[in-house]
Amino acid sequence: MKPKTQQKTKYPGVYVDTNGNYFYQTEFGIDRITGKRIRKKGRKDINGKPFSSASEANKELTRLKREYHKVNSYANYKMTYEQFMNKVYIPYYQTDVEESTFSVRKRILERIRDRFGSIPLRSLSVEDVQNFRTWLLSSKENGGAGYSQSYASLVFGTFRKSLDKAVEMQYLEYNISKKVKAIPKGKAIVPYWTKQEFEKVINQIYIGDFYEHLNFVMLWTYYNTGIRVNEGTALWWSDVDLEKKRLRVHHMIVLKNKSDWKRNYYTKTEDGKRTIALDNDTVKILIEWKKRQSEIGMGNENDFIFSYDGLPMLKSTISRIIKRYAKLASVKEIQAKGLRHSHASYLINEFNVSVLVLSQRMGHSSPEITLKHYSHMWQGADTVIADEMGGNIKIETATKTKIAFNGNQSLKK
Predict the structure, then answer these.
(1) TM segments (predicted)?
(2) Long-range interactions of 14-21: CB distance < 8 A, separation 24+
(3) Shortest CA distance to 205 belongs to which of 330, 338, 328, 293?
(4) Domains of the chain in sequence order
(5) What is the spatial distance between Cα 102 and Cα 327, in angstroms, rounded to a whole number?
(6) 106-111, Cβ contacts within 8 angstroms, sequence gap of 24 or more
């Protein structure tokens, strides 16, 4: 007769082997996804310490059972992170944000999903999270992702939010990623063009050509209004009052390609809806461009301002235009959103504009947001004030002391 390798204890599911070591072994039910039985067996507690008694093994088994039954009505106990992302988080996120935001963040969500893939959601460890954080911050030469500080912060933050949702849905007891330090955003300075650099750029554009004329109008309008990229591509001629010299910014384009786009009646934020005053040069440039468009049957109320074919302009096209003329002008290449930062710099450095006025023009919800993004541009803006302060106060001191000092305050000659 074959000798037993394990014996039962007074606790159901808890055993002791021939070496006197305690362990638990039980079944929790059927996996709703795979159809297989969920079996659990272990010889250590949650802290990795071997059981020294049947009582300790029973405590750990009781904890696991309680944890399983708590979440089983909501989710599968062995759900992988990939399954959670595909079935729960990505669909939830898509309905919770704007379409334009989801289209940008979708790739990030998929990268995170693929990173942890088949790891059971409940098996994610502090080591997994820390290794992910290290990878995000490491250069490609060192086997890392090679991301910028700000992008790594965005990816890691997105990962943490996914686990927050898992906790909220009671798939998890706690967010394991919060045991690892978050990645600071860092100071993200967006390159922009100074007035001198912008002058060099427009000097390379030949407006005698229809398409180059469009390039000129687009770059000029972005530079002199500070509108967001997708606010500009959404502009119709009905948004411009050329007599009162006003530009109404009330729409944004959600655009995937030339044939798949949507013009929404809102901007990035509620405070983004605004009316911007236009300078005389911009008004004159827009009038000339409208006439040019009318030559090919465009320029009507519901026609796009930045268009040569009746369709909105792609962000990638704007980027190529910027790159082309930056190279010709021998100035630094900037992103499309750098034109917005260029406008802020232009107003601050050329006109010493107040933060309140800039905030309203940029469509920020508060001056604090404006300072968060552009405070560095005001550095040195007080030079004029400092120059004017010189000689403003008349300096005339006493010819002799009028105080009788005693003790330590008295300095002997």
Answers:
(1) none
(2) 14/54, 14/57, 14/58, 14/61, 16/54, 21/50, 21/51
(3) 328
(4) 6-72 (no CATH), 81-179 (1.10.150), 195-351 (1.10.443.10)
(5) 33
(6) 108/154, 108/155, 108/158, 109/85, 109/158, 109/162, 111/155
How far is 158 from 379, CA to CA, in rounded Å?
33
Taking each helix axis from N to C end, the angle separating 99-116 and 149-168, rounded to the nearest 10 degrees, works out to 80
- Alpha helices (H) in 191-335, listed in sequence order: 195-202, 210-225, 229-232, 280-294, 315-329
Task: Say how many C-beta atoms besides its own lie within 10 A of residue 247's C-beta.
Answer: 24
**Which of 265, 267, 260 shows the shortest CA–CA distance to 230?**
267
Main-chain phi, psi angles of 144, to 5 degrees? -95, -170
Name, in order, each residue with C-beta under 8 angstroms of 186's C-beta and a sequence gap of 6 or more. 148, 149, 150, 153
Q: What are phi and psi of 95, to 5 degrees?
A: -85, -10
- Bridge partners (DSSP) of residue 17 are 6
The alpha carbon of residue 396 and the mean position of all alpha carbons in its chain are separated, in whole angstroms, by 56
Three-class SS state of 265: coil
pTM: 0.64
**Whose CA is closest to 231, among 174, 294, 304?**
304
Tell me the residue length of the chain: 413
Strands (E) located in 86-138: none
Instruction: Output the tens digit of pLDDT for each of the chain's 413 residues.
Output: 445 578 888 888 899 998 899 999 887 766 655 667 778 888 988 788 899 999 999 988 888 877 776 655 444 567 899 999 999 999 999 988 877 788 889 999 999 999 998 899 988 999 999 999 999 999 999 999 999 888 999 999 999 999 999 988 878 888 999 999 999 987 667 899 999 999 999 999 999 999 999 999 999 999 999 999 999 999 999 999 999 999 999 998 888 777 888 888 877 776 678 999 999 999 999 999 999 999 999 999 999 999 999 999 999 999 999 999 999 999 999 999 999 999 998 998 888 888 889 888 998 878 888 877 777 676 666 666 777 777 878 888 788 878 876 665 555 54
Residues 6+ apart with CB under 8 A from 304: 233, 234, 235, 236, 310, 311, 312, 313
State the Cα–Cα distance between residues 276 and 361, nearest whole angstrom.
Answer: 6
